[in-house]
């Protein structure tokens, strides 16, 4: 089986195909629709469905999904709390939060809790499938415009974070800094490789070191650090 995505001590475990997906949503129609859509993909496997965040975190422990599709507004435990709980585990799954609004404050909270990105619930099915594959490969699935919107919200009143981000980035080599800035611009590994004249494996190695040096567990957190420092 193929393995995708970089591996570091602080990053999720490598993903093998088929990509194991857990759907967490309190709407049974949404769960059913996602299950039918994703079940038809040869490289995806829906391993379980949960009705709320608490059930989702419990199932994730036993089913060990690679990617969790996480609703935000749910009873018992919402998506923010569930995402934070999953993110705190030694080998967390990658989490895509689901929301109705692309600038929803809940999404900002989910990214801060460790989510790898988000989807709007009216996203076309092919784009949902592509997003799951992208996140499974270790890359965020935020468009540049959405990334800018979310990071601007996170940065409001962020003077202390600016100093902290600058201190973290000061530990990087010049090449690592270039890769970090490219990640902050929303570029994929392939795009970074082409722009900096590097191989894709070399870019993945640099990103893995960025996880360690910046204390990040996904590319969105690297991007937030870069934006907090005012480099993008």
Written account of the structure:
- 51% of the residues lie in helices and 14% in strands.
- The chain is an alpha/beta fold and 232 residues long.
- It folds into two domains: 3-141, Rossmann fold; 158-228, Winged helix-like DNA-binding domain superfamily/Winged helix DNA-binding domain (Arc Repressor Mutant, subunit A).
- The strands form two sheets. Strands 4-3-5-6-7 form a five-stranded parallel beta sheet, with helices on both faces. A two-stranded antiparallel ribbon has the order 1-2.
- Helix 1 links the parallel strand 3 and strand 4.
- Helix 9 packs across helix 10 (200-214).
- The longest helix is centred in the last third of the chain and has 15 residues, at 200-214.
- It is globular, with a radius of gyration of 17 Å.
Short summary of the structure?
This protein has 232 residues and is an alpha/beta fold. The protein contains eleven helices and seven strands.
């Amino acid at each position: 089986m193929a393995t995708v995505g970089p591996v570091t001590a602080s990053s999720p475990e490598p993903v093998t195909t088929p990509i194991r997906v857990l759907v967490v949503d309190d709407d049974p129609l949404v769960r059913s629709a996602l299950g039918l859509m994703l079940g038809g993909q040869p490289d995806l496997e829906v391993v379980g469905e949960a009705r709320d965040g608490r059930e989702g975190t419990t199932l994730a422990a036993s089913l060990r999904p690679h990617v969790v599709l996480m609703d935000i507004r749910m009873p018992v435990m919402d998506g923010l709390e569930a995402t934070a709980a999953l993110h705190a585990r030694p080998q967390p799954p990658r989490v895509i939060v689901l929301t109705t609004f692309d600038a929803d404050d809940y999404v900002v909270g989910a990214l801060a809790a460790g989510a790898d990105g988000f989807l709007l619930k009216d996203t076309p099915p092919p784009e949902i499938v592509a997003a799951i594959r992208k996140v499974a490969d270790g890359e965020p699935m935020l468009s540049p415009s959405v990334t800018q919107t979310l990071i601007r919200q996170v940065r409001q009143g962020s003077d202390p974070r600016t100093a902290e981000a600058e201190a973290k980035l000061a530990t990087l080599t010049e090449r690592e800094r270039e890769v970090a800035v490219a990640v902050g611009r929303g570029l994929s590994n392939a795009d970074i490789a082409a722009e900096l004249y590097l191989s894709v494996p070399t870019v993945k190695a640099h990103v893995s070191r960025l996880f360690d040096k910046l204390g990040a567990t996904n590319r969105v957190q690297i991007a937030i650090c870069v934006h907090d420092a005012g480099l993008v």
